[in-house]
Amino acid sequence: RSLAVSGAVSIGVPWDKFLNLRVLDVEGWEKFGDEDLLRVCRSKMFFLRYLSIRNTRISKLPPEIDMLRSLEILDASRTEVTEILFGVFVETRLNRLDLRGTPMRQLTLPKKLIWRLNHLLLGGEGKTNSTETAIRLPHDIRRFRALRTLATVDLGEQPASFVRALGDLYQLEVLAITWYFHQSSDRDYCDTLLSSIERWRKLKSLTIHCGLGCSMEFLGSLSHPPEKLEKFKVTLGRFAGVPQWFQKLGDLSFVQITVCKLGAGDLGILRFLPKLKCLILGLDFIPREAIVIGNEGFHELQKFSIVCPVPWLTFKSEAMPKLTYLQLEF
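Above: the chain's sequence. Below: its structure in token form.
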């Protein structure tokens, strides 16, 4: 029922002999190309639910993929796919689509698929490019109402109305977006993002990839954060201090944040998060006195990473009792 092939295997595979396959994984198979995918689609694998063509030579998704009627999950990440032809996937049961690391820049999907899709993964590193890329979504983002996972959405050229429409995706549990300097200094954009965050009541993970120098202090005024939030990650963006609303999040277990000050109150907020297991902390200032990590709180913390301009950090005896990973970068 499951078949995984990888590496430089060059044998001819009689795909029509595997009619009962539920899972087919050819990740990293150097010889797997467009013609091979076409043969898989035509092989009458009516029961195939999961197909991974990740990191192969695939450059297009043929219309014949609709012949895989039971297909629910397609991982086409790190391929050379540049577009999705109109009407593809309509006859399948696809609900999870992974296009991370592809050259695709604009995504167009058939309406029938949009209404059914639960997980949509975009952007990320390409095969030969170490920079973060993102794919532009259609302006009528409200039609993706079934989405529970959406990452990564490029907001760079989107109007504030698009950010507002994102707030209508009430089922979202995992979201990653890109945020730019001009948006962090635009009150309309900032207010719209705040409003959308407060409407994502089911959100468990929020990642914001910021442009260099972005001030994210406006997020400190969030009055009703998603109560189920478990992961909060902001790259490059800076906060004046630790947001006070962290105290309302009893399930928060992962925090990555850069702050411009770290007083006793800020440390106290982080220290007493009951489920915090991973803390990645950037300090964008030179401390005037030693930062002391006491032996109170941080009872569940397992990973602690800190970036600080000077090595002025003190750990008291029995601080962070469950810590297994420590990274100090000065």
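Residues 126-132 have pLDDT under 50 and may be disordered.
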